[in-house]
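To the team - magnesium ion complex, inputs and output below.
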Amino acid sequence: MNNVIEISDLTVVYPSGGRRLFAGEKLTAVDNVTLSVEEGVSLGIAGESGSGKSTLVKAAGNLLKFGNPGVNITGKIFLNTDGKKHDILNIPGGKMKELRKHVQFIFQDPNSSLNPRLTVGEIIEEPLRYFSACGKTERKEKALKLLGMTGLEEDLYSRYPHELSGGQKQRIGIARALAPEPKVLIADEPLSSLDVSVQAQIIGLFKKLKDEFNLTLIFVSHDLSVVENLCNEVAVMYLGKILEQGKCSAVLSSPKNPYTKALISSVPVPEYRAERKERTVLQGDIPSPVNRPAGCVFCTRCPVAADLCFKTPPDLQPLEDGRLSACHFTQS
Ligand SMILES: Nc1ncnc2c1ncn2[C@@H]1O[C@H](COP(=O)(O)OP(=O)(O)OP(=O)(O)O)[C@@H](O)[C@H]1O
Ligand code: SF4
Ligand SMILES: [Mg+2]
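Output:
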């Protein structure tokens, strides 16, 4: 299978003057991450708040340079599309605008991501106007079709976002993202502003669309049960690093990295817990990304940390079953 996105040695450092930073401080939000996403795969990105999930996916879609003056991004990100490999951190702005059609985002809060002055029809047609040569009639036909595919009635076409429920707004956000027929859909915590019952419906919608469009999906969620339900693969992040990555079925049912074990132990889902052989309680807070531990990033909270962990960072290494884990003491 082909990789749609290939990220290598990606590091993102926010400059002084950013959120919660004092003058002169630098914050490493993503640290030397290497990750590929194959065509048709759904990859979940999990981890506690502040672990760098949003920064990683925004970088993957080359969105970070906007609204983050002075951010320092090093490494490579390739988008493979149209039979070419595009080095998206190093291409001219005009070319990047063309490529945006291939990587579409769905954001956490549909209230702030939909323009309140546009009708639903105009919102869904906007990317078609921008990225395709469709005429007015064809755009309307496609918008109505997308409304149907995302489980919405056609009569919403002329309505405004303030007339819709949260779940309907998120479906509109999904329809808009699908309109230019992207290669990759990136959803950053798209459920967290929705009621639990609506969350279940939107998960169902993602599952259906994933199959219908053979989508490559990158799905950010702090909720491991959602990741397990929706994704084939998972990358578990902590303090800007991936600590474990592999098939969801392997990583979530039998985690090998001490951080993944602790994270899974903290999931408040009874049936999940029943299968757990051992419990690790995740104590304390994630350290400041401004003053990161010198060795393993998890050493200050890891229940099995040894001297080596405080001095030397472990590499993300393949285990026998093909998953990757960054731990000096991971056993296959
Ligand atoms: N624009 C910014 N300027 C400075 N620091 C930032 C900026 N955006 C994020 N950060 C910091 O970078 C780190 C990673 O943030 P990020 O939002 O990527 O994490 P996250 O895993 O998505 O968290 P959450 O689950 O809360 O959304 C955090 O310490 C955050 O405070
Ligand atoms: S390297 Fe050490 S601190 Fe890090 S996860 Fe493994 S045992 Fe824990
Ligand atoms: Mg986030």
